[in-house]
Fold these 2 entries.
Entry 1:
Amino acid sequence: MTETRIFTERLSAAAQQRLGVRGLSKYFGDFAANSDVTLSVDRGEIHALLGENGAGKSTLVKMIYGILTPDAGSMELDGAAYRPSKPSDARAHGVGMVFQHFAVFDALRVIDNIALGLDGRMPDAALADEVMAICDRYRLHIELGRHVADLGAGERQRLEIIRVLMQDPSLLILDEPTSVLTPQETEELFLTLDRLSDEGRSIIYISHKLDEVRALCDRATLLRGGQVVDVVDPRQESTRSLGEKMIGERLAETKRVHPTIHETEPRLSIRAGDIWPATEHAMILKEIYLSVHPGSILGIAGVSGNGQDALFDLLSGELPMPNPESMLLDGEVIGHLSIEARRHLGVLSAPEGRLGHAAVPELTLWENVILTARHTRGIMRNEHLISGRNAKSFAKEVMETFDVKASSVEAKASSLSGGNLQKFLIGREILGAPRLFIVSNPTWGVDAKAQQFIHQRLLELAATGCAVIVMSQDIDELLSITDRICAICHGQLSRTHDTEVMTPEHLGALMLGQEIIG
Amino acid sequence: MIRFEARAETHWFHEWIAVIAALVLTALTAALVLMALGFDPANSLHRIVVRPLASTYGVSELIAKATPLITIGVALSLGFRAGVWNIGAEGQLVVGGLTGGAVALALYGVDWFWVLPVVLVGGALGGMAWAAIPAFLKVRFNANEILVSLMLTYVALLLLSVMVHGPLRDPDGFNFPESRLFHDAATLPKLFDAGRGHIGFIFALVFAGLGTWMVKRWHLGFEMKVSGLSPRAAQFAGYSRNQTIWISLLIGGALSGFAGVVEVTGNIGQLVPNISPSYGFTAIIVAFLARLHPLAVVPAGLLVALSYLAGEAAQLSLGIPGAMTQVFQGLLLFFLLGTSMLVNYRIRLWRSV
């Protein structure tokens, strides 16, 4: 596998640059996703692309990888003009990409998946040897004979990286690679990436996790609104200064509101043991014992796909509890109640899926408040008739109180950015004065400012005496806002620990299903 | 190369432009077809589209044909919004006509004012019962309502045939497969002196109004809309999908059955083996022509009724085969679907870099 190709090239000063992008622009209709973007990546450099959602990072790398064609500008690769018209062109030029969402075949073995990515190769012993050589060199541990369906997110990602490395790329693009990884897996990935860059391969690393970028990357190009706002050395910046450059304004500190002393009675307690949810596809949940007190925030950590969906649906009431008497709200059995009946008791929730679950994309904001706030907030004129005026005024109240940027309450839910829609949907529930609030991945895919705003609101909500359950795969989020914390792995819930004594490493271990002793 | 690009935002007038464009394209294509058949297009179009409307008789006939289309179209637009695809309105219409007609025959000779209401309710209940079959099978066994309701249409047609050949046949009818003529007490009053337009049209307008009110203000209508747009969000909101299925199909069955009994008591005056020229299927076109808006079903129903009249006029005054009606309707639907694409997408010519 030929690092020879990389090393035999003469390294003159001009040839130090691997990829040069000049004046690249891309329009979707009248919207400029990228305008006049310039980017330079050197050999052996790990270069971060930093920006909020919608800043144009994905558009830029899609043009580099040949998925999109630029409307203006030019690219150079290793000193020669580079204009890929499709991804296979890009691969032929030595550009490889690992996507955020894995494109692997669950039903096939690892080795079959690798062979499928290579034209005309069979999953035979020769291929296995080659793959093993790569795995050894880059410390990518994977078992070739296992079925992909049995692999965790970290292993799937390693499979994707191996597939790309089989093509011996000189430029590797990684799109938010750590979003599905535990801290331990992230460490391992960083070792692999360091090794790759030592060999002279260049890496474009897309992320909005500032700590990671500071730990890993040599340079960072910051994008905002489709334009390059700065190129910095992330090691010379603080997380805070990077964040402010990325967003373009100063961030307030998330203030930790100290929780009141726990009362003896929990607001919610579940002593269910094992649960077989009443739908086919939901994961079987094991050892579901949890309680949360008024005024406190319980975090449930977990890499997505480990049973959170079923647990969330059982908590919110979308799925009925198979053993209803195991679920108590202030001592009353609520496990048998529907989601609507639970809302009447003040059990409100905000699921992870914003469009199509928490909100109907085609409907306006004021119509979307009817979904969950229709009884708690007097939106109905009577049992059967909707009061459009009340719905609109409540939607307006949510927009104002939660700083939601939208043209009006008549805006369709789908027209809002992720952060604004999330603020709206969380506000819709919080203004319903919940006694118990369950939220899943409250800041997934939202920008840093909205994230900080939402955290602040959740802390304030708890301070009013509401019990809050936050399910999340963002470890930093859980450690900064929760009081108690547990983790779910393969449907099994861990014991609950005080957040104060929890470290990222401990939490990572819990997320991998390893219980902490003591 | 041509490609479609999603519009960032849509405006209400886009929909109107799409409908008007479809109408213009239909007229132009119809003119081309007429030209190909050797007719002067302007003159022929005038004779088959404008002249039928120039008399009270013509308007009355238009209303007679539009009545079942609007009545059923309102119900279908509500159900289709909810994502419940009742394709069997024709069967529900036939059963409604049969049960309502049977009630009328059973009360033959009773000359009280409540006979007609009882007959109409009998028809609506018959259609409702017929639609309850796909609803039950869908809720209980997740059977596809499109297939079940469609297949039941053919069962309904045969059922009507059996009844008019057998038990409901007029004993004095020389063995023709027809019932006796309904008593005056079970016949809907006419709207005009000429033509067959009857007060069923007033009912149709009321249904359109009620349907609009349900969509705009009624929580039930909102629930059905959410259920159709996003089943998961409906579940999260606490809306029952099964309730939506039941209500969509029962409304569809009730109004289709009502259209059926109105057709036999207002238009035909007796039960015959064939009581509907596919109104139940044509109403699907009407519902989509109205873009599933109950109020817009009224002009849409009148327009499609006009296409029936135009087809008849084409036969009578131009000597063109009756299949022309279907050609007109097919053209209309084709262009509507084509132009409705442009409501949400715009055409871009391929620009290379």
Entry 2:
Amino acid sequence: MKIIVAIKQVPGPDAQVRIDATGKWIEESDLQFALNESDAYALEEALQLKEKHGGEVIVVSAGPERVGTTIREALAKGADRAIQIACDDLGTRDALGVSRLLAAAIKTENPDLILTGLQSEDLGLGQTGVIVAELLGLPHATLILHVEVLDGAGTQAQIKVKRELEEGWFQTIELPTPAVLTIQSGGNKLRYATLMGIKRAKTKEVRQLTAAELGVDSAPVVLLEQVSMPQRKKSTQMLPGNAQEAATALVEKLKFEVRVL
Amino acid sequence: MSGILVVQEAGRKRISFEALAFGRRLAELTGLAVETAAVGDPNETIFVETSGPPIPTSHAVRHSLLEKYTSDGYVLAFEQLIRKLEPSYVVFPHTYQSRDYVPRLATRFGQVLISDITGIEAGPIFIRQLVQGKLTGAYRHQGDGPCFLSIQAGAFPADPPQAGKTIILTFQPEIAPSDIRTRPSEPFRGGSQTVDLGSAQLIVSVGRGIKDAANIPIVQELATALGAELAASRPICDNGWLPMERQVGSSGQTVSPKLYLAIGISGAIQHLVGMKGSQCVVAINKDPDAPIFEVADYGIAGDLFEVVPALTAAVKAAKQ
């Protein structure tokens, strides 16, 4: 089974974000970047499928040069090779523009499965996988926790996936391959890269592509015009002092104002 | 039509009516008229019950292949309805269902869904959260073709119903069985849901700031001292540090306790939608800019590993 995992490099969970001079995105110069969390689960599911059924896991990622570190991380965890789409204008492309890049790169590989995280932690649009499916004319399923490969002959469906619904409900979906699945976090336990894995990653193939080579234009239909710090809706009363003082002040509030003690 | 088409979801009445309230705001800004549409029989409650002044026209999308939700079926049905009505805007409630098929539907029109909208301004400019709620983004649609929008739960209060009449038109799309490539099962409950956080009066909830499973007892002790239920944000349950049934948020339980004490939770929107009905929110977080403070009544910007043990001791002392 040939599996492509589309991954994204995003600001790390503890990153202190500041707005850049254009007012349209965040200052990236001193930011820590990480592999998008649900993409990490997509990669894990792909690696486990490969371990069970054999085949190949290829990661693909679009973005500026820094994306290379996240690609190496995925290779160190066990992906076989990678495709890096160099593009410095990720921020001005909308979800369709980015998906067109990914779809064009994926198409030449003819994979059986395409996995990606359900949404990115920076833009949070939650659409890339679904758009890629449409661009490639493939069926898709979203919010998937597990993938099971069906071996029954005579049935059209080749995989059965467990999909998360709202408020603790689930369903299974059977679908033919090739297919695109967006993976929800929490379905597996994530592995760490081993020292051997990190060593091996250095020799694995990373194919470099550019947007121009893929022949994909970037005229967006949706523009992110401005970013700003969120406005507080409630007037939050901050309790000052050291831990002891703040804790004492809070207990007073809980006792006499919230009346829960 | 060149108006605003608001798609309603049977079984998700509240958020559907919130999307309708957004549709009316958009109508005020653009001068366009609102119509609604939903998959189902005209007798279904989503058509019978209304919110706000009655919408003159509603479209009941009916087909035997739409009885079970599939993305292929819904994309085909709404593609045909939109091509017929030619709306300028198509509005959806932001649900697990809409996020499954609307990006695909929008792509069919060369468009991009602006998802998870929490605000609207003149322009129209659409407001949504970025970077887990640490930033707010202002989006604009440009060019021809319908603009696709989905609306976050709780952002636009639903209007109370008013008497009046809506004309319901039946729309029968053309769908062949071979168009549907996926075979979904009936929904089922995952595991035994033994913890009912929905009725809890006091909740202590823990997030990524706790850093390690070995630190969970720190918050457990506070919960015990308060007589509160222990809950968590998604990453904690994903890591297996607390069971999934203790998760609060869009993929977990929705809670409305008297006190919600959020510890080391940054406050991504997926978490906030599950707890913003709480009467009093207290947040403890080392980052004074964490979005959780936007919804908190009381906040302590400090190291939870110092604040929480001090708080546990103070609660015990106060209860004696």
